[in-house]
Design brief:
The chain is an all-alpha fold. It has a domain of about 60 residues. The protein is built from 1 helix and no strands. The longest helix is centred in the middle third of the chain and has 60 residues. The chain starts with 18 loop residues before the first helix and ends in a 14-residue tail after the last helix.
Length: about 90
C-alpha cells in the first residue's frame, strides 16, 4: 500500500505503526509534564520555607525587645533622688 492511497483518518494499525508505541510516547510526554510541574512546585515550596525561615528570627526577637524596657521600669523606680548643687559625696 503506497502512502498516496492511505486515507488521512486511517488508524495507526492500518498505517503500520504499533499502537503501543503511540501509547508509550503519550505516556512519556505526560510523565515529563508532570515531572516539570512537580519540580516547579517543590522549588516554590522551598522558596516559601526560606522566606518564612528568614522571618522567624525577627518574630523571636520581638518579645525580647519588649521585655527589656519592662525590666528597666523597676530599676528606674528603685533609684533614689539626687540633690543637685549639694556637696560632693565623700568616699565610695
Amino acid at each position: 500500500m503506497s502512502t498516496g492511497t492511505m486515507r488521512t483518518g486511517a488508524s495507526a494499525a492500518a498505517r503500520g505503526v504499533n499502537p503501543w508505541l503511540i501509547a508509550e510516547v503519550a505516556a512519556t510526554a505526560t510523565f515529563m509534564e508532570v515531572l516539570d510541574t512537580t519540580i516547579a512546585a517543590i522549588r516554590w515550596i522551598g522558596q516559601q520555607v526560606q522566606t518564612q525561615a528568614s522571618f522567624l528570627p525577627h518574630m523571636a526577637a520581638f518579645p525580647v525587645l519588649a521585655l527589656i524596657p519592662l525590666a528597666a521600669v523597676p530599676l528606674a523606680l528603685s533609684l533614689r533622688k539626687v540633690k543637685l548643687g549639694g556637696p560632693a559625696p565623700a568616699g565610695h
